[in-house]
Design brief:
This protein has 13 helices and 12 strands. With 355 residues, it is an alpha+beta fold.
Length: 355
């Protein structure tokens, strides 16, 4: 803190001038800054500190530190800085919020009086990103381990002699192939999502024929629908055009309709419809499945989030489809939403702006 000392101890100035100079200096800092005197009252602070700690309490100046921030470790660190001239690093988590700070507290002299300065580095976003990273690594490890374990087990079985078993060897190879395809799809979806989030994917919106695109997706998924005896119904009026990148729109529809088939009941239906609402095109995909409880609706578009992990593993899927749809919709300047009634089904809606 010698830099600050050199500014404020060479020529003593009136307290008001010192406070003004400090405040002007601190305005340039993004970090929250609080200066405390020997009486533990706040002598100076900046706008960032007010935004973080003062909204409920009003102006910070002249208040005791204990009135503004209630944290014993923080108070003790300020005391050590004032009385023992010790520098401390403290982690602060504001109660009732999701804010976390790394705080550097050091001795600080002003107007020939001892005090302490605290610089609060907001690490909330870093913490959230770290949690996302850890969750992603945990999920991806699990999703890759499951098919890989199956592949290794059946390869070992074949190596131990089952390759000569004409009744089962093709079945074992089929299991290996399906699990390899599952890993392949997962890696493709991860790369796709990563490219979208990093801005590497661009779209070229133009007038796209929605009923034709829907028919193409239905054709591609017809065999899956037939296996579950699910009826695919295209309710989009002929000559309905939306302003979108046709390739990406087909990708969004494929993910939504594929999910609607997978999680439907046997003999159910999947309907695709179109409507104009508030100057936007709304494409809805409705299924007659089990529906989604309200507890899960807020997180359904998160990567790898599953409402029923056991069933999801049983019927396949990477857990990234809805996250990809969300990002592609936003890339178009639109949005994706869901409404669901447990036991009756779900409606996923893509809202796209008109040209």
């Amino acid at each position: 803190m010698s830099f600050f000392k050199s500014i404020f101890t060479k020529k003593p100035a009136p307290a008001n001038n010192t406070r003004t100079t400090l405040n002007e200096l601190f305005k340039t800092m993004r970090e929250s800054v609080i200066v405390v005197g020997e009486d533990t009252r706040i002598f100076a602070s900046n706008e960032a500190a007010y935004e973080a700690f003062g909204r409920r309490n009003g102006a910070l100046e002249n208040k005791r530190l204990t009135e503004v921030i209630r944290d014993l470790n923080l108070h003790e660190a300020f005391r050590r800085a004032i009385e023992e001239e010790k520098v401390s690093d403290v982690e602060l988590e504001l109660i009732g919020t999701d804010k976390k700070y790394d705080v550097r507290i050091a001795p600080f002299e002003f107007d020939e009086k001892r005090g302490a300065i605290g610089i609060f580095y907001d690490i909330s976003q870093i913490e959230r990103l770290e949690n996302v990273r850890q969750e992603f690594l945990s999920n991806i490890s699990h999703e890759l381990r499951t098919p890989l374990t199956s592949i290794l087990a059946f390869v070992e079985t074949l190596e131990d002699g089952a390759i000569e078993d004409e009744d089962n060897n093709l079945r074992f190879l089929g299991v290996i192939r399906r699990n390899a395809e599952r890993m392949h799809h997962l890696i493709n979806d991860i790369l796709e999502l990563s490219s979208i989030e990093s801005g590497k994917i661009t779209i070229e919106p133009k007038r796209s024929n929605l009923p034709n695109l829907t028919d193409e997706v239905f054709t591609n998924l017809s065999s899956k629908a037939a296996e579950k005896q699910v009826t695919l119904i295209n309710e989009v009026p002929k000559e309905t055009f939306v302003f979108a990148d046709a390739v990406r729109l087909e990708q969004m529809l494929t993910n939504l309709i594929d999910n609607a088939v997978k999680f439907n009941r046997e003999g159910g239906q999947v309907r695709v419809a179109h409507a104009e609402e508030n100057g936007s095109d709304v494409i809805s995909v409705t299924d007659t499945g089990e529906g989604i409880s309200s507890d899960h609706l807020q997180r359904i578009f998160e990567r790898f989030y599953r409402t029923d992990r056991a069933r999801s593993r049983e019927i396949g899927g990477t857990g990234l489809g809805l996250a990809i749809v969300k990002h592609l919709a936003r890339l178009h300047g639109g949005e994706i939403s869901v409404a669901s009634t447990p036991g009756k089904g779900s409606v996923f809606s893509i809202e796209l702006p008109k040209k």
